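To whoever picks this up:

The parser on our side crashed when reading a file containing two proteins. I've narrowed it down to the boundary between the first structure block and the second sequence. Both blocks are reproduced below exactly, byte for byte. First block:
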Amino acid sequence: MRRLLNAALLTALVGSTTAVMAPTALASSGPDANAAPGCVTKSDTIEGASGEITICVQNGVARVSGNLTDTLPGSGFGEPDGGCATWWIDWQTTRGSINDSILVCGHFQSSPEKTFDYDPSAGEHGVKGITGLNEVSLGIGFI
């Protein structure tokens, strides 16, 4: 199940991250030359997390897909790290920057792996007015 964290938690919870910057239009000359036009693909591995994510924004429509693995799931709080693997997403919107996240917590969930494909604007709490992507990074979050 996808969990969203608010901007305050995002700022407070970021562990180790690496970032890739993308232009407003998400041009195909982004980080992955094989990505479709309007898309950015990123793969990363850090201590406690690994995954791949593709983010597409075209004509005001966004799509997020990929996978995420908590590589240190443990059996409970603090075992071995107590953290959740997290893709942190910083969207450009008509209202400014809005932070979003995708989590997998092996110590809470039945599986330390997650495959996802969704519309980030869907639902009552979805990110509205997406115009582009500021940043996406893999990290560790604590809830």
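<<boundary where parser fails>>
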Amino acid sequence: MDSDSISLAAVLVAKEASNWAFWTMMASTVSAIAAVGTIIVAMFALNSWHKQEALKAQVNFKHAILELKDALRAMPPRWSYPQYNIARNLISAHPGMSHQTHDATRIYFLKNDLISAYDHAVKCWIMCDGLFENKDVNVFWKAFLDQFKSYEKAGGDRDSLESLLDRIAQNLKLF
């Protein structure tokens, strides 16, 4: 081989190597663009998931409010702690009555259902912390909590509590 053919072979090898380097660079560029695209799609999906979970928590809270309202409506229009205490004592004295719902013991079971619905609503509220854009919901919920504490302990009239629950449900605009 003479020096010209060696030089020509070296140039051809260098040209082929540069072609491979160019196409490797192009493949790396496409791969990098695909990775960035994947990150962007993942961010949109994550944001969508976050909004979906927030809406789910708000729907659960509204459902809990409606269940609480149903439990409140099941209570007598007015009741007092002595009525509840008598019912509790009757059930303690006669365990066989625990499955019956006589007028004297009915208040005991209704109040327990009300407390369960209240506890569920409070748990749902905690999960919705800071999710409500409507500030009236926060105000009405705090007013309800204050009034419910006294209603739970001493009894009384359920109408003001029902009206607060109605206001909360009306102000919960989910869609």
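After patching the parser it read the second block fine. The two ends are 82 Å apart (CA to CA). The longest strand covers residues 78-80.
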